[in-house]
């Protein structure tokens, strides 16, 4: 058994994803994950080739493109509903859309956050993250999908309203 497989088994055990877990989903996922780890180990990668393969596999498994989006016609699928103006979704990155006027945007462009008061007495305030219509970021092509969105502080008007605050905490 490879070091990689032994390592994976130990880590899965630590989170309760054991062979004899009472949770059927945990047992099933353990089996699948260890199968994929064994297949990867069977390839005999060394340090460089392993990191290279992992980088590409991670992107593909997360439905992230390996090269910049081009905006060419073959990348788009029509997603308009009956009676709506034309709208297209990118086939290579599902978070990217095109309007009838040709303008394009990524709905995963921004994630907003604000401070929230804990429900339990004595717990520390925490950051609450959310997306909304304003999370869209206009894009042009070629477009390289960022590894992560822009995180931006924004005090929301959600109910219940949080106390006055700024990026550093409650005022």
Radius of gyration, CA atoms, in whole angstroms: 22 Å
Major pleated sheet: 5 strands, antiparallel
Distance between the termini: 56 Å
Per DSSP E runs of 2 or more residues, the count of β-strands stands at 10
Shape: extended
Question: By helix and strand content, what is the structural category?
Answer: alpha+beta
Mean pLDDT: 91
Count, helices: 3
User: Fraction of residues in helices?
Assistant: 25-40%
Q: What is the domain tally? A: 2
**Percent of sequence in beta strands:** 15-25%
Strand order of the largest sheet: 1-2-3-4-7
- Catalogue the unreliable spans: none
Order of helices and strands: HHHEEEEEEEEEE
In short:
Helix content is 27%, strand content 22%.
Defining traits:
5-stranded antiparallel sheet, 3-stranded mixed sheet, 3 helices, 22% strand, extended
Describe what this molecule looks like in 3D.
The structure is a single chain. With 171 residues, the protein is an alpha+beta fold. It has two domains: 59 residues, no CATH class; 98 residues, no CATH class. Helices cover 27% and strands 22% of the residues. The protein contains three helices and ten strands, in the order H-H-H-E-E-E-E-E-E-E-E-E-E. A five-stranded antiparallel β-sheet has the order 1-2-3-4-7, with no helix packed on it. Strand 1 and strand 2 form a beta hairpin. Helix 1 runs antiparallel to helix 2. The protein is extended and about 55 Å long. The model has no long low-confidence stretch (mean pLDDT 91).
SSE diagram, text form:
Blueprint: H1 3-14, H2 24-42, H3 47-61, E1 76-78, E2 87-90, E3 96-99, E4 104-106, E5 110-116, E6 126-130, E7 137-139, E8 150-153, E9 165-166, E10 169-170
Parallel strand pairs: 5-8
Antiparallel strand pairs: 1-2, 2-3, 3-4, 4-7, 5-6, 9-10
